[in-house]
């Protein structure tokens, strides 16, 4: 419905032109809004005020199994997550995704993608593993390049054109090795640790994709194996001169460098919702901008108000005039201005920033894109177990008169910066989708209290059931903004876990003294060890559902096959459910439809694990946060080892 007063204010008064579009992929609403914003910026041009159109940006919005932007609806093609693209072991899918997704982005007016996320997934408990290309540095490098080429090319070429989108690789120099898997969005995870001195592998894919238009930097403070700063500054990447010199000076990167959101504000700053200026909290806002400009940054994520940037310009000029800096403020700002404007010139925003609604509708979710996305989803599904040919080639007609049981489960949620945790409850696989394939779908009867919280489930009689499909999500440790790993109420630390049942971290591999920790007022270092404490998993009910299914099968007196359908964003310890599963299929950001088709034998599985699945939490504790493939993988009842690269087809382990 047009522009808000706040939008007009940041466009007019703060001269903002890089706008994050965090809404749904609704063609009509987006096209009209984007055109209105572009038209408004034209009116702002005047003597002394140049015309600059709007460069719309977006986080990833195309993942089929994501609860993110536009999770509902059919206005954009749907693909596996980055981890799912890696699971195909076919870079053509990633290149196709880049080419087709960028065309859809342009149809929505988006000219910058805040992606790909190419942090190396060396810490299996990290919350953002699902957004990565896995833990193999060479595969990560290959897919990052394919993604960037696909997005920045146009109409099948490697040239900038009407379907090109600026790619922003993130998060330099790798935000994956948070101690214990804790996440850098919050104080609990603000330290990245390098006990294996393996930062080169974390940086490899970035250095292989330096033709990307932009780079976003990481939140975390880097510490070495002794818990000391790995570089000179005990600060997050944006403030860390040495890490930024590696990118700007050593690698010669000339594109735009952007801070992640919230990096310019401190946790105690008045009126700020987020504060991730890790290590720079004591600086004034203007001093932070001065420092970050000095490390070679050009843009500030999430900043709508130019006040502190202009204050930093004054500080810069004062330091220049005092002989402390080699170039004046205007020259420094012009350097960034030239880089930033290149992101407007690349996709042709000055030639034509406007959209045609009918053309956009024809581009979005066109048949070729939807089919290619679904093909990638199917190819990404990994079959880990197939006992006695539980899954074999079949056709859809064979299942039309069959009955399937899908148990229900719930997730208690986690409180976060956005409010209390959200309780959710539903069948573990979408019933409406399952009904496309089966004659009948049955599920549990739930008893709830006055708040809608389930107090008990009762499984149906399975006498007439032909198949049990148990959907399970990865063990849910919390969200990016949940400060997971730190119980703030008790000021105690607890472990993140890859198993559903409570895990108490009292093994010999658990650090009794953490590598990370704040420097306290008395000069000592805080101990963030979680030794002896127990995990907090929001979806333990997933395993309860699996057990309930086993009990219901036993009560029926029948031998009903059980296929576990794992929707994974992290590695999982399979010991809790593998032995009682006749087959296991895994999807990484795929739709329930693709998972069902593979589970029923309607499509032969092609996917392979892009990450190791560990034998237990002991091996998780023994591995080093910055080192790939250093866990003992799980071995199942059939003798198959769930290592990086493992997957089954109908004939057995995939060897190519």
From TrEMBL:
Its EC number is 3.2.1.21. It is an enzyme of class 3 (hydrolase). This is beta-glucosidase. It comes from Oerskovia merdavium. It comes from the Bacteria. Belongs to the glycosyl hydrolase 3 family. Residues 553-650 form the Glycoside hydrolase family 3 C-terminal domain. GO terms for molecular function: hydrolase activity. SUPFAM superfamilies: (Trans)glycosidases (SSF51445), Beta-D-glucan exohydrolase, C-terminal domain (SSF52279). Keywords: Glycosidase, Hydrolase, Signal. Coiled coil: none annotated. Residues 5-330 form the Glycoside hydrolase family 3 N-terminal domain. It catalyses: Hydrolysis of terminal, non-reducing beta-D-glucosyl residues with release of beta-D-glucose. It holds the Pfam family Glyco_hydro_3. InterPro entries: Cellulose_Degrad_GH3, GH, Glyco_hydro_3_C, Glyco_hydro_3_C_sf, Glyco_hydro_3_N, Glyco_hydro_3_N_sf.
């Amino acid at each position: 419905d047009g522009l808000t007063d706040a939008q007009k204010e940041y466009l007019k008064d703060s001269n903002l032109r890089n706008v994050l579009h965090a809404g749904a992929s609704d063609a009509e609403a987006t096209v009209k809004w984007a055109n209105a914003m572009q038209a408004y910026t034209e009116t702002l041009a005047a003597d002394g005020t140049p015309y600059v159109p709007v460069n719309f940006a977006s986080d990833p919005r195309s993942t089929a199994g994501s609860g993110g932007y536009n999770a509902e609806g059919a206005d954009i093609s749907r693909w596996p997550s980055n981890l799912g693209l890696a699971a195909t072991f076919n870079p053509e899918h990633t290149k196709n995704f880049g080419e087709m997704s960028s065309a859809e982005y342009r149809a929505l007016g988006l000219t910058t993608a805040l992606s790909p996320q190419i942090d190396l997934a060396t810490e299996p408990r990290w919350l953002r593993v699902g957004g990565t290309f896995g833990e193999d540095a060479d595969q990560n490098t290959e897919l990052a390049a394919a993604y960037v080429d696909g997005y920045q090319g146009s109409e099948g070429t490697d040239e900038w054109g009407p379907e090109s989108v600026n790619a922003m690789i993130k998060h330099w120099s790798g935000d994956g090795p948070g101690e214990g898997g804790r996440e850098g969005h919050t104080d609990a995870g603000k330290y990245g640790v390098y006990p294996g001195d393996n930062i080169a592998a974390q940086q490899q894919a970035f250095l292989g994709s330096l033709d990307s238009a932009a780079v976003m930097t990481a939140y975390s403070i880097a510490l070495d194996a002794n818990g000391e700063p790995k570089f000179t500054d005990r600060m997050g990447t944006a403030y860390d001169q040495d890490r930024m010199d590696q990118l700007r000076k050593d690698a010669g990167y000339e594109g735009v460098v952007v801070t992640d959101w919230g990096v310019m504000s401190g946790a105690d700053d008045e009126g700020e919702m987020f504060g991730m200026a890790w290590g720079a909290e004591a600086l004034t806002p203007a001093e932070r901008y001065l420092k970050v400009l000095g490390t070679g940054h050009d843009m500030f994520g999430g900043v709508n108000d130019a006040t502190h940037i202009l204050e930093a310009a004054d500080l810069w000029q004062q330091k220049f005039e005092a002989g402390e800096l080699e170039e004046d403020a205007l020259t420094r700002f012009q350097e960034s201005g030239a880089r930033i404007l290149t992101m407007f010139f690349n996709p042709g925003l000055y030639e034509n920033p406007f959209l045609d609604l009918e053309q956009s509708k024809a581009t979005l979710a066109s048949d070729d894109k939807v089919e290619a996305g679904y093909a990638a989803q199917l190819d990404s599904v990994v079959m880990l177990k197939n006992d006695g040919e539980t899954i074999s080639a079949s056709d859809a007609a064979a299942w039309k008169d069959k009955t399937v049981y899908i148990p229900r489960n719930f997730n208690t949620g986690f409180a976060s910066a956005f409010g209390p945790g959200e309780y959710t409850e539903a069948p573990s696989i979408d019933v409406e989708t399952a009904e496309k394939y089966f004659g009948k779908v049955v599920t549990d009867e739930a008893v709830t209290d006055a708040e809608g919280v389930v107090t008990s489930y009762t499984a149906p009689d399975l006498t007439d059931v032909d198949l049990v499909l148990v959907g399970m999500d990865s063990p849910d440790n919390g969200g990016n903004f949940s400060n997971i790993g730190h119980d703030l109420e008790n000021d105690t630390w607890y472990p993140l876990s890859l198993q559903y049942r409570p895990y108490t971290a009292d093994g010999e591999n658990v650090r009794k003294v953490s590598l990370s920790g704040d420097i306290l007022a008395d000069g000592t270092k805080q101990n963030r060890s979680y030794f002896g404490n127990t995990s907090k998993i929001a979806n333990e009910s997933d395993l309860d559902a699996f057990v309930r299914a086993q009990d219901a099968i036993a009560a029926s007196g029948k031998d009903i096959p059980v296929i576990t359908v794992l929707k994974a964003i992290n590695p999982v310890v399979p010991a809790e459910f593998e032995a009682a599963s006749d087959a296991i299929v895994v999807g990484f950001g795929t739709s329930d439809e693709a998972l069902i088709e593979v589970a029923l034998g309607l499509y032969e599985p092609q996917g392979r694990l892009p990450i190791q699945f560990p034998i237990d939490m002991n091996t998780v504790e023994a591995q080093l946060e910055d080192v790939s493939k250093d866990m003992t993988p799980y071995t199942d009842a059939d003798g198959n080892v769930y290592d990086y690269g493992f997957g089954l087809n109908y004939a057995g382990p995939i060897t190519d």
